[in-house]
Amino acid sequence: xxxxxxxxxxxxxxxxxxxxxxxxxxxxxxxxxxxxxxxxxxxxxxxxxxxxxxxxxxxxxxxxxxxxxxx
Length: 71
Hints:
single chain, alpha+beta, 3-stranded mixed beta sheet
């Protein structure tokens, strides 16, 4: 079964609040079954995965069939 993980990226200044910082993140989907990975690759080609990531507030999304440790 696939897992969804959050990969925190380096903090950056928040342009909306002086002196504050924002922590951007990426979504990592790993242990994806081969047939699901094919569907996700098709979605990526159409730009749907990046649109989903942006809707969640993420900078990017990574999809892997193997295990990825972001810890």
